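Structure first, sequence second, as always.
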């Protein structure tokens, strides 16, 4: 029986970059079935909601989820925004560990971001006096599971973990730090240090090559992972994997839907293809194919770059170059 990969194209350039990932996936030596499903703004237009029940059901039963991009100005005044579908999907699949690798030259780091708690999922509302509030909440168990994931990943890499918080100000961060220290004893091979989020942001800019793995809460991770992407080529090249415990993961590029270039053929599918590589590694256990795909993307960035990377190749032409390089590597 084939493994199902749920493909959510979404909005803007999402369908274009996802198509290149599907082209690659269908040429790999894997027994997979691609199922395309409505999601985001496109699903609002089609079904009135960004995460239709049939889409969620298919994602729950899939081996993995490949996601293009969501959002755009078309839905800015919509009663329900496309991004609500993304948050809902993350919560429903309980993909609490968001992995954001950033590599370039001497820099090879991994941001491990808690993805289904904190400020983005806490109580929110408007008080009678007009004050708007968003609440940052964490249970110790939420912190423990993401911190253990961070330690395990660091142990499999260079054995160094930095836990990022704002413990000099926030109670949630003081809890975070206590839990990290409690868990650290189970990982004696990993060197742990703590850092405040503001100084660590500066560290990423000035000495990212000294960072191995960083683990942090949801909002800090959102910001810091973008900083890490900026120092290693930009968001247009950044991939992500969102993982739970045993269920399907979500694999998506970090860039937005870029509606200004949608349909022009100028979209760079590098981040989508690197996200596919993360899927091959984490969902299918094929680190060998993942390495070949990442190398093929690097080859194409050198030989047939898209306009944003200094070239003139179309999205499809870039995909052709990736396929040619990948097939040569897999056959070798």
């Amino acid at each position: 029986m084939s493994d199902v990969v749920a493909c959510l194209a979404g909005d803007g350039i999402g369908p274009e970059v996802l198509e290149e990932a599907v082209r690659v996936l269908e040429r790999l030596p894997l027994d997979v079935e691609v199922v395309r499903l409505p999601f985001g703004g496109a699903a609002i237009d089609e079904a009135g909601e960004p995460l239709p029940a049939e889409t969620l059901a298919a994602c729950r039963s899939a081996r993995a989820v490949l996601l293009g991009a969501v959002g755009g100005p078309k839905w800015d005044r919509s009663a329900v925004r496309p991004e609500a579908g993304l948050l809902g999907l993350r919560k429903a699949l309980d993909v609490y560990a968001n992995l954001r690798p950033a590599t370039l030259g001497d820099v090879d780091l991994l941001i491990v971001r808690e993805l289904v708690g904190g400020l983005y999922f806490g109580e929110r509302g408007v008080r009678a006096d007009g004050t708007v509030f968003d609440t940052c909440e964490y249970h110790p168990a939420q912190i423990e599971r993401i911190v253990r994931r961070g330690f395990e990943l660091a142990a499999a890499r260079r054995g160094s973990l930095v836990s990022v918080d704002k413990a000099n100000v926030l109670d949630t961060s003081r809890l975070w730090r206590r839990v990290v220290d409690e868990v650290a004893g189970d990982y004696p091979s990993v060197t742990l240090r703590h850092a405040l989020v503001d100084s660590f942001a500066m560290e990423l800019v000035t000495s990212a090559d000294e960072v191995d793995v960083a683990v942090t809460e949801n909002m800090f991770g959102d910001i810091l992972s973008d900083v890490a992407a900026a120092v290693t080529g930009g968001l247009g090249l950044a991939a992500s994997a969102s993982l739970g415990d045993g269920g399907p993961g979500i694999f998506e590029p970090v860039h937005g839907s870029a509606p200004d270039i949608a349909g022009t053929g100028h979209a760079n599918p590098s981040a989508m293809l690197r996200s596919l590589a993360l899927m091959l590694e984490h969902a299918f256990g094929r680190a060998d194919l993942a390495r070949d795909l990442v190398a093929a993307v690097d080859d194409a960035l050198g030989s047939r770059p898209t306009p944003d990377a200094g070239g003139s190749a179309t999205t499809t032409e870039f995909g052709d170059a990736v396929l040619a390089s990948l097939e040569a590597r897999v056959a070798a």
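Margin note: The first strand starts at residue 3 and ends at 10.
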